[in-house]
Protein backbone atom coordinates (compact mmCIF):
# COMPACT_ATOMS: atom_id res chain seq x y z
CA UNK A 1 0.00 0.00 0.00
CA UNK A 2 2.84 2.43 0.87
CA UNK A 3 4.60 1.44 -2.33
CA UNK A 4 1.44 2.21 -4.33
CA UNK A 5 1.06 5.63 -2.67
CA UNK A 6 4.73 6.50 -3.30
CA UNK A 7 4.39 5.40 -6.93
CA UNK A 8 1.36 7.65 -7.46
CA UNK A 9 3.12 10.57 -5.73
CA UNK A 10 6.24 10.25 -7.89
CA UNK A 11 4.14 9.90 -11.07
CA UNK A 12 2.24 13.04 -10.10
CA UNK A 13 5.49 14.93 -9.44
CA UNK A 14 6.90 13.70 -12.76
CA UNK A 15 3.86 14.93 -14.68
CA UNK A 16 3.96 18.22 -12.80
CA UNK A 17 7.61 18.79 -13.76
CA UNK A 18 6.96 17.80 -17.39
CA UNK A 19 3.94 20.06 -17.81
CA UNK A 20 5.70 22.84 -15.94
CA UNK A 21 8.58 22.64 -18.42
CA UNK A 22 6.16 22.67 -21.35
CA UNK A 23 4.34 25.71 -19.93
CA UNK A 24 7.65 27.52 -19.29
CA UNK A 25 8.81 26.91 -22.88
CA UNK A 26 5.44 28.02 -24.28
CA UNK A 27 5.47 31.29 -22.32
CA UNK A 28 9.18 31.93 -22.93
CA UNK A 29 9.32 31.16 -26.64
CA UNK A 30 5.80 31.40 -28.03
CA UNK A 31 4.06 34.16 -26.09
CA UNK A 32 1.60 34.99 -23.38
CA UNK A 33 -1.06 37.28 -22.00
CA UNK A 34 0.11 40.63 -20.58
CA UNK A 35 -1.78 43.25 -18.57
CA UNK A 36 -0.46 46.72 -19.45
CA UNK A 37 -0.51 49.43 -16.81
CA UNK A 38 0.25 53.12 -16.91
CA UNK A 39 -0.61 55.99 -19.26
CA UNK A 40 2.50 55.96 -21.48
CA UNK A 41 0.90 54.10 -24.43
CA UNK A 42 -2.42 55.99 -24.50
CA UNK A 43 -4.48 56.20 -26.69
CA UNK A 44 -3.32 52.92 -28.30
CA UNK A 45 -3.21 50.90 -25.06
CA UNK A 46 -5.14 52.12 -22.02
CA UNK A 47 -4.34 51.37 -18.37
CA UNK A 48 -5.25 47.72 -17.51
CA UNK A 49 -5.77 46.63 -21.14
CA UNK A 50 -4.98 42.95 -21.72
CA UNK A 51 -2.86 42.10 -24.76
CA UNK A 52 -1.22 39.06 -26.34
CA UNK A 53 2.55 39.23 -26.69
CA UNK A 54 4.28 36.85 -29.10
CA UNK A 55 7.94 36.08 -28.43
CA UNK A 56 9.05 34.52 -31.73
CA UNK A 57 9.82 37.89 -33.37
CA UNK A 58 12.60 38.69 -30.92
CA UNK A 59 14.25 35.30 -31.49
CA UNK A 60 14.20 35.71 -35.27
CA UNK A 61 15.14 39.43 -35.21
CA UNK A 62 11.84 40.41 -36.84
CA UNK A 63 11.20 43.54 -34.76
CA UNK A 64 10.37 46.50 -37.03
CA UNK A 65 9.76 50.21 -36.62
CA UNK A 66 6.24 50.81 -35.37
CA UNK A 67 5.99 47.53 -33.42
CA UNK A 68 4.88 47.70 -29.78
CA UNK A 69 7.16 45.60 -27.61
CA UNK A 70 7.41 44.36 -24.03
CA UNK A 71 10.91 45.12 -22.70
CA UNK A 72 12.77 44.57 -19.45
CA UNK A 73 13.03 48.06 -17.98
CA UNK A 74 16.56 49.50 -18.25
CA UNK A 75 15.93 51.32 -14.94
CA UNK A 76 14.39 48.39 -13.04
CA UNK A 77 15.18 44.88 -14.31
CA UNK A 78 12.41 43.40 -12.14
CA UNK A 79 9.71 45.15 -14.17
CA UNK A 80 8.65 45.14 -17.81
CA UNK A 81 7.64 48.15 -19.88
CA UNK A 82 5.49 48.49 -22.98
CA UNK A 83 6.75 50.91 -25.67
CA UNK A 84 6.74 51.44 -29.45
CA UNK A 85 9.90 50.91 -31.52
CA UNK A 86 10.76 54.23 -33.15
CA UNK A 87 14.21 53.37 -34.46
CA UNK A 88 16.42 50.34 -35.12
CA UNK A 89 20.21 50.19 -35.16
CA UNK A 90 21.67 52.77 -37.52
CA UNK A 91 18.46 54.83 -37.73
CA UNK A 92 18.45 58.56 -37.08
CA UNK A 93 16.00 59.46 -34.30
CA UNK A 94 14.74 62.64 -32.70
CA UNK A 95 16.00 62.57 -29.11
CA UNK A 96 14.23 65.70 -27.88
CA UNK A 97 10.80 66.14 -26.37
CA UNK A 98 7.95 67.42 -28.57
CA UNK A 99 7.83 70.68 -26.60
CA UNK A 100 11.55 71.45 -27.10
CA UNK A 101 12.13 74.39 -29.43
CA UNK A 102 15.45 73.06 -30.73
CA UNK A 103 15.27 69.47 -31.94
CA UNK A 104 18.22 67.15 -31.38
CA UNK A 105 18.93 63.97 -33.31
CA UNK A 106 21.12 60.93 -32.80
CA UNK A 107 21.78 57.55 -34.37
CA UNK A 108 20.73 54.29 -32.72
CA UNK A 109 23.86 52.22 -31.95
CA UNK A 110 24.37 48.67 -33.19
CA UNK A 111 22.39 46.07 -31.24
CA UNK A 112 19.95 48.65 -29.81
CA UNK A 113 16.47 50.03 -30.45
CA UNK A 114 14.92 53.42 -29.70
CA UNK A 115 11.63 53.17 -27.76
CA UNK A 116 8.96 55.77 -27.07
CA UNK A 117 5.49 55.71 -25.57
CA UNK A 118 2.57 56.91 -27.71
CA UNK A 119 1.69 59.44 -24.99
CA UNK A 120 4.84 61.54 -25.47
CA UNK A 121 4.01 63.99 -22.68
CA UNK A 122 3.59 61.24 -20.08
CA UNK A 123 6.14 58.56 -20.96
CA UNK A 124 9.51 57.57 -19.55
CA UNK A 125 11.28 56.09 -22.55
CA UNK A 126 14.48 56.25 -24.61
CA UNK A 127 14.39 60.04 -24.44
CA UNK A 128 15.19 59.55 -20.72
CA UNK A 129 17.34 56.41 -20.58
CA UNK A 130 18.72 56.25 -24.13
CA UNK A 131 18.78 53.39 -26.63
CA UNK A 132 17.76 49.99 -25.27
CA UNK A 133 19.74 46.79 -26.02
CA UNK A 134 17.89 44.40 -28.32
CA UNK A 135 18.43 41.62 -25.77
CA UNK A 136 16.04 43.31 -23.31
CA UNK A 137 13.07 42.82 -25.67
CA UNK A 138 10.77 40.13 -24.26
CA UNK A 139 8.08 40.08 -26.96
CA UNK A 140 6.01 41.95 -29.52
CA UNK A 141 2.40 42.86 -28.84
CA UNK A 142 0.22 41.82 -31.73
CA UNK A 143 -3.34 41.70 -30.40
CA UNK A 144 -5.50 43.51 -27.86
CA UNK A 145 -7.72 41.04 -26.00
CA UNK A 146 -9.49 43.18 -23.39
CA UNK A 147 -11.69 45.23 -23.32
CA UNK A 148 -13.75 43.22 -25.80
CA UNK A 149 -15.11 46.31 -27.58
CA UNK A 150 -11.49 47.11 -28.55
CA UNK A 151 -10.50 43.51 -29.45
CA UNK A 152 -8.20 43.19 -32.46
CA UNK A 153 -4.90 44.25 -33.92
CA UNK A 154 -3.31 47.43 -32.59
CA UNK A 155 -3.61 50.68 -34.50
CA UNK A 156 -0.75 52.68 -35.98
CA UNK A 157 1.24 55.16 -33.95
CA UNK A 158 -0.37 58.55 -33.35
CA UNK A 159 3.20 59.91 -33.52
CA UNK A 160 4.08 58.69 -37.00
CA UNK A 161 5.87 61.98 -37.64
CA UNK A 162 8.57 60.87 -35.13
CA UNK A 163 9.71 58.17 -37.59
CA UNK A 164 12.57 59.70 -39.59
CA UNK A 165 13.28 58.39 -43.09
CA UNK A 166 16.75 59.86 -43.71
UniProtKB/TrEMBL annotation:
<protein>
    <recommendedName>
        <fullName>Mitochondrial inner membrane protease subunit</fullName>
        <ecNumber>3.4.21.-</ecNumber>
    </recommendedName>
</protein>
<keyword id="KW-0999">Mitochondrion inner membrane</keyword>
<feature type="active site">
    <location>
        <position position="83"/>
    </location>
</feature>
<dbReference type="InterPro" id="IPR000223">
    <property type="entry name" value="Pept_S26A_signal_pept_1"/>
</dbReference>
<dbReference type="GO" id="GO:0042720">
    <property type="term" value="C:mitochondrial inner membrane peptidase complex"/>
</dbReference>
<feature type="active site">
    <location>
        <position position="40"/>
    </location>
</feature>
<keyword id="KW-0496">Mitochondrion</keyword>
<dbReference type="InterPro" id="IPR052064">
    <property type="entry name" value="Mito_IMP1_subunit"/>
</dbReference>
<comment type="subunit">
    <text>Heterodimer of 2 subunits, IMMPL1 and IMMPL2.</text>
</comment>
<dbReference type="Pfam" id="PF10502">
    <property type="entry name" value="Peptidase_S26"/>
</dbReference>
<dbReference type="GO" id="GO:0006465">
    <property type="term" value="P:signal peptide processing"/>
</dbReference>
<keyword id="KW-0645">Protease</keyword>
<feature type="domain" description="Peptidase S26">
    <location>
        <begin position="16"/>
        <end position="97"/>
    </location>
</feature>
<dbReference type="InterPro" id="IPR036286">
    <property type="entry name" value="LexA/Signal_pep-like_sf"/>
</dbReference>
<keyword id="KW-0472">Membrane</keyword>
<dbReference type="GO" id="GO:0004252">
    <property type="term" value="F:serine-type endopeptidase activity"/>
</dbReference>
<feature type="domain" description="Peptidase S26">
    <location>
        <begin position="103"/>
        <end position="146"/>
    </location>
</feature>
<keyword id="KW-0378">Hydrolase</keyword>
<dbReference type="GO" id="GO:0006627">
    <property type="term" value="P:protein processing involved in protein targeting to mitochondrion"/>
</dbReference>
<dbReference type="InterPro" id="IPR019533">
    <property type="entry name" value="Peptidase_S26"/>
</dbReference>
<comment type="similarity">
    <text>Belongs to the peptidase S26 family. IMP1 subfamily.</text>
</comment>
